Amino acid sequence: MATPKFSKSTISFHQDLKKRVGDYFINKKLPRSGNSPLYLKAGVMVLSFIFLYVHLVFFTPHWAIALVECLVLGALTAFIGFNVMHDGAHGSFSDKAWINKMAGISINFLGANVFMWKTKHNVVHHSYTNVEGVDDDLNAGSFLRLSPSQKKFKIHRFQHYYFPLTYALLYLYWVFFTDYKKYVTRKVGMVPIQKMKLSDHISFWSFKAIHLILFVAIPVYMMGWSQWIVGFLVYSLFAGLLLTMVFQLAHSLEETAFPVPSPATNSLEDEWMIHQIRTTANFATGYKLLTWFLGGLNYQVEHHLFPKISHIHYPAISKIIKQACKDYNINYLEHEKLRWAFLSHFRHLRVLGKA
Predict the structure, then answer these.
(1) Cα gap 293→81, rounded to integer Å
(2) CB atoms within 10 A of CB 96
(3) 239 and which of 77, 151, 288, 317 could share a cystine (Cβ 3.0–4.6 Å)?
(4) CB 111 within 8 Å of CB 175
């Protein structure tokens, strides 16, 4: 099966929107990458993670305090992913390539692999958002039905109740299974990954070993199996829940589209930029603190249209994009409240489970 093709643009929306956003940066004389406040935030998050890790492993506090610290460590894992790794892997964290590379590699220390991530996320997800059979983010096996095109199983009748548990398991599944599956099969779903160089193979196995030493071997040696397994599960499950929920609230909703390629031509109805707008939604963009912690990923529309622009610019360019959508009569999807996005996702899962 070949990846589907996008329709050619019959309107000037794509070119016009790119020009409007480009003019913003020219007129403001701003780089499209991050800035000093972003680097400070990244430093605070990374140093906080290191401090908590050392305190938990080498100065293990009372179990009640330790559990709270494990939750905070899980949150910091997600926040580093949102704010540092994500921008770095897209090349928007800095205007210097080596800094972007270092920011992207932060995911390797947390157990995943940036090489696999770039194919899964940058190439596949950003190209074929919500296209069943191609977008690997829709693939939850038989546990969840996220798209109307997916096969329905009896268990899906209850998926709107148990989905948080499934999402919580994502981090463990990602680190200990799917990365290895991609490595062995050389594919992300149906899409082949780029040929790995020797350095990529060395990096893959070296960082997997480092993660096992840092998060399994040393903690078990310092605390024992029972304390480690409880703490590691609390940490991992909370990180997985946060990571998954942020992305699902942007794509798996009542309002978002799940385009199906034409059987005759294997082509999608819309050109790429309109496809992104129809399959993506923002949520709670009026909450600056939430935006700060999520690395602007509540501005998913802006991110999908301009992934090489740092998230610090999303609030500004969102106004330009909204106006362009209004001018071209294109529906811009957004939930003003976090709970509204959550309820939309909940109802989406309930409908797909019963359909």
Answers:
(1) 10
(2) 10
(3) 77
(4) yes
What is the rounded average pLDDT of the residues 283-297? 97
- Boundaries of every domain in the chain: 36-260+329-354
Terminus-to-terminus CA distance in the chain, angstroms? Answer: 27
- At residue 105, the pLDDT reads 96
**C-alpha to C-alpha distances, 295 to 92, 123, 354, nearest whole angstrom:** 12, 20, 35
Q: Give, as one character, the DSSP assignment of residue 196.
A: P
pLDDT (tens digit, 9 = 90+) per residue, 188-215?
A: 988 999 999 999 999 999 999 999 999 9
pTM of the shown model? 0.93
Is residue 282 within 8 Å of 334, Cβ to Cβ? Answer: yes
Distance between CA 88 and CA 103 in Å, rounded?
5
Which pLDDT tens digit goes with each residue over 63-78? 999 999 999 999 999 9
Sequential DSSP letters for 72-138: HHHHHHHHHIIIIIHHHHHT-S-SSHHHHHHHHHHHHHTTS-HHHHIIIIIIIIHHSTT-TTT-GGG
pLDDT digits (tens, 9 = 90+) for 301-348: 999 999 999 999 999 999 999 999 999 999 999 999 999 999 999 999
The answer on pLDDT for 262 being more than 90 is: no
Give SS3 for 192: strand
259 in Cβ contact with 279 (< 8 Å): yes
- What are the backbone angles phi and psi of residue 330, rounded to the nearest 5°? -110, 130
Structure tokens at 244: 């998954």
Alpha carbon 110 to its chain's center: 15
In sequence order, which ranges of the chain are alpha helices (DSSP H)?
Answer: 13-28, 36-58, 63-80, 86-90, 97-109, 114-117, 126-127, 159-168, 170-173, 179-185, 198-212, 218-223, 225-251, 272-278, 288-294, 300-305, 314-327, 338-354
